[in-house]
Write a structure and sequence with these properties.
With 181 residues, the chain is an alpha/beta fold. It has a single domain, classed as Metallo-dependent phosphatases (Purple Acid Phosphatase, chain A, domain 2, 4-Layer Sandwich), CATH 3.60.21.10. It has 4 helices and 12 strands. The strands form 2 sheets. It has a 7-stranded mixed sheet with strand order 4-3-2-1-10-11-12, with no helix packed on it. A 5-stranded mixed sheet has the order 5-6-7-9-8, covered by helices on one side. The longest helix has 11 residues. The chain is globular and about 40 Å long.
Length: 181
């Protein structure tokens, strides 16, 4: 099983396509929000083309599950063939229970409590554009950072493969950090 974790694409078709190169035969893509729009506080990212990004996502032959971010709007849903789920998406795949939330409206403590209640293995967030990979008890928290507008120096995604999560710099393929689930 290969799962790409991505967040904060902000309309960059270039960054999205570059991200997909790290798992061309993935089984699932999980997005923690902010898909098409760059947002009023962000610069326009390289490769900004929300229309082409929507078409690229719609043409995917792999499931794409997305939680709503603070820059996602009803008009985005009008051009995407996949639902943008709010306030979070819940996925169960191969005995792995995953909660995806943009993280802009829910604190870490609230997500941790919900994860314990629902027996979640992995909590995926976005919003900060800063990479994070850590365990809190039995629950793994990950923020893949942003593939288009990173605030910590390098554009990134995460990849789950064979019970290992890797944070990957999409500019050079470097594995920034890895952790066993």
């Amino acid at each position: 099983m290969k799962i790409i974790l991505i967040s904060d694409i902000h309309g960059s078709v270039t960054a999205f396509r570059k991200s997909l190169q790290f798992a061309p035969s993935c089984d699932l893509i999980l997005n923690a929000g902010d898909v098409l729009y760059h947002g009023p506080r962000n610069p326009i990212p390289d490769g900004y083309n929300p229309k082409e990004l929507a078409e690229t996502i719609n043409e995917l032959n792999v499931p794409f599950i997305c939680a709503a971010g603070n820059c996602d709007a009803a008009v985005d849903q009008a051009v995407l063939s996949i639902p943008i789920q709010a306030p979070y998406a819940f996925v169960c795949i191969e005995n792995l229970r995953i909660l995806v939330s943009h993280g802009h409206e829910t604190s870490d403590d609230e997500l941790f409590d919900l994860a314990q209640k629902w027996k979640i293995d992995l909590v995926v967030t976005g919003h900060t554009h800063v990479k994070r990979l850590e365990k809190k008890g039995e629950i793994t928290f990950i923020n893949p950072g942003s593939c288009s507008l990173p605030k910590d120096g390098s554009p990134s995604i995460a990849l789950i493969e064979d019970s290992i999560i890797k944070l990957i710099n999409i500019d050079n393929g470097e594995i920034i950090k890895s952790l066993e689930i």
